[in-house]
Each structure stands twice: as C-alpha cells, then as structure tokens.
Amino acid sequence: MNLVETFSEFKGSKNIDRPTMVRVLEDVFRTLIRKKYGSDENYDVIVNTTNGDLEMWRVREIAPDGEVTDDRSQISISEALSIDEDYEVGEECYEQLTLEEFGRRSIMAARQTLISRIMELEKDEIFKRYSDRVGDLILGEVHQILKREILIVDDVTGNELILPRSEMIKGDFFRKGDMVKGVISRVDMKNNNPVVIMSRTDSVFLEKLLEQEVPEIEDGLITVKKIVRIPGERAKVAVESYDDRIDPVGACVGMKGSRIHGIVRELKNENIDIVNFTNNSILFIQRSLTPAKVTNIELNNETMTAAVFLKPDQVSLAIGKGGSNIKLAGKLTGYEIDVYRDSDELEVDDVDLDEFSDEIESWVIDSLKSIGCDSARSVLNLSKEELTRRTDLEEETVDDVLKILASEFEE
C-alpha cells in the first residue's frame, strides 16, 4: 500500500487548482504525522505537482552511537547505516515513511478529512467561478427534467446548473440530451451547496445573443442602451452607435434580417424591435412605438406621462397584441403612454362613447377607451375578435356593445 494508490482519486480534481490541492494534501498528511509523532518539525511532505504523487520523509541528523540526545531530531549512525550504508556522522538521514506505519484507523481518518476538505474547496470554487460569470452566456446539455426545473450540465465544466420553469420562455420544450442556451442569472447557497441558476427570460440573455451575432456590439462600436422583454412574445432593444458611419439598427438586423433571424428562432419567434436610442424623449417614444406611425406627442415630464395621438388605423399597431407594444414602449422610454385617436372633432355622423353611458357600463367604456376607441365608429371599425382580444372583455359583452352602437346608425 502506498500514498499514490490510496489517494490517487483526488489527484485529478477538476475544480481545484493544483497549488491549492498541494497545500491541502500537505496539511492533511502533516496532521497525520503530528498525531503519531507529536510534531511534524523534522518531516518533509513532498507532492509532485506534475503527476500528483506523494512522499513523506523523516529527516534526522546522524550522531555517533550513544550520543543521541533527542530521538525526534537525531538518529544513531548504526541505525542510519541500516537505512543506507553510505551514511556518515553529521549528515542528514532521510527515512521514507509508508502508510502502514500510521495504522488503518489513522489512514481512514486522514482520507475522510481529505474528502471533506476537497468537497468544501470544490463548493467554494464553483460558487466563486459562477458568481464571477453572472450574466455570461452558457451552453449546457439537458440532464434531467423535473416538474419545476430542468437540470443542465455545463458543456465546458461538467457542473450541474438549474433552469427553473419560471426562467424558461413560453414555448420552450426540451428533451434529455438537448443543448440549451441561457445566461447565468445568479448563484445561491442552499444547505451549504452552490446552486447555479440559469435563465432564458432575462434581458441579458437577449443582449448576449446580440453580442454573439453582431460583431459591432462585441467590438464596442454599437452600444445596447436598454432591453425590455415579454419573453417569447415581444422585445424592444434601444441601440446607439458613436460612429456616424454605422447604422446601429441595420447592423443589428443584418442583410435581409440575417443576424436577427437566428436570435428570433432561439427565442421562440419573439418579435424583436430594434430602435435607435436618442435623448430626445419625443423622438424616442415615437421610435419605441414602432411599427405604428405617430402623428403627435404631448409630454408631461413632471408625471412622466405621454399622450400619443395616431391615425385611427395606427392605434391597434401602437397598442399591439394584448397591449404588449405600448407596455414595452413605456418600459423602454420610462414614460406612461396613453394612446388617442388623432381627430380634432368627431366625424359628422359619429358619436362620443360617453353618450352611451345609460346603456353601456362605465367600466366597459373605460376598457374601450384604453385601446384608443373613444367614439362609436372607432369601436365599430374593429372586429369582434379584435375587441375581445385587446380589451379582455367577454364575447357576450362585446356583442352587446356592438349591437347598441350599431343601432345608433341604423336608418
């Protein structure tokens, strides 16, 4: 039995750097020596940093027979010669120790101590390594699918990561063995174990995908100023270039959408709007409401609200599916945006919605106004399906409203 055979399983620990491993091994075996001999003062523990081999040597000065005053630091010449016949008085005698000398119980205790120390070091190393990489793009293989989370194995380190269902995009579906991209969201400590959380819904994920696809961003020629997302549905990205020769929006989208297309596919067809950032708030709001064309904007910087006026056919574009466009535009610009139909006065044969307050409940009228419909004809211009989807009103309620408004214009 020798040290190398007994402790060889620890030599290749992938999470601990070599100098640290050497220090741990030295410390464990010096403790073993102290317990048996009372001191480790005259002992050398040598760890071969190339192959991880371990050796322990007892070093004592050779004294003439009968003149040994301290057994710990001295050895008689006759005993030294039994170790090596070339030794002489005054030299240092090197005697190699074997594990058998320490006894089975001491060896097992040392082994357990070593296991414990290495596990703690590996945990600390994993925590530190991934804490330093929060926000980095990561690729891993699906290892296990659980009810609330998916266990991912980091493709580079082999460490286990967790992708919670709450950090997955609507429409994400993975099988065991699939490769998954995401960003390191955070690192928690649970029961003294590091838990690395991965995310696909974080705005940083979209930013890292853009960096990967758009060299100008990685090179610092284009800056991503802000990203807002409804994961899997829609995202808005404000970009800026400090080089007038570079069109930041065009560079991010790529020729015929070549750069953005891969990102959209990765994000389960998330609709991504890239807009030019500007400090001009009115212009920024206008751009953020793309694809709608804005007629006029009135700002109130005290309340951080913006009244946006659009042609009737642009209102639904500005609001977007389920209000997603206007919601994200508000988050991107920092303004609460209200949308209004751009008309100074009602058409000759149109009627203000408030005129129907006796027949239509006020909360229903407010719901219709919230999507930019403030007159009878503006409601009738939209289909029943569109009104149901955008207002979240029940179909029966929408049917009643349409019937009441339509009756107003019947001959």
From TrEMBL:
Keywords associated with the record: Cytoplasm, RNA-binding, Transcription, Transcription antitermination, Transcription regulation, Transcription termination
An example Gene Ontology CC term for this record: cytosol
GO biological process, one term: transcription antitermination
Main location per the UniProt record: cytoplasm
Pfam families (alphabetical): KH_NusA_1st, KH_NusA_2nd, NusA_N
Subcellular location: Cytoplasm
Gene3D superfamilies membership: 3.30.300.20, Nucleic acid-binding proteins (2.40.50.140), NusA, N-terminal domain (3.30.1480.10)
Domain S1 motif: 135-201
InterPro entries reported in the protein's UniProt record: KH_dom-like_a/b, KH_NusA_2nd, KH_sf_prok-type, NA-bd_OB-fold, NusA_N_sf, S1_domain, TF_NusA, TF_NusA_bacterial
Recorded GO MF terms: DNA-binding transcription factor activity; RNA binding
Domain of life, per lineage: Bacteria
Record-linked SUPFAM superfamilies: Nucleic acid-binding proteins, Prokaryotic type KH domain (KH-domain type II), Transcription factor NusA, N-terminal domain
Transcription regulation listed as a keyword: yes
Xref: PANTHER family: TRANSCRIPTION TERMINATION FACTOR NUSA, TRANSCRIPTION TERMINATION_ANTITERMINATION PROTEIN NUSA
Protein family per UniProt: Belongs to the NusA family.
Purpose: Participates in both transcription termination and antitermination.
Subunit and partners: Monomer. Binds directly to the core enzyme of the DNA-dependent RNA polymerase and to nascent RNA.
Name the UniProt record assigns to this protein: Transcription termination/antitermination protein NusA
Protein species of origin: Portibacter lacus
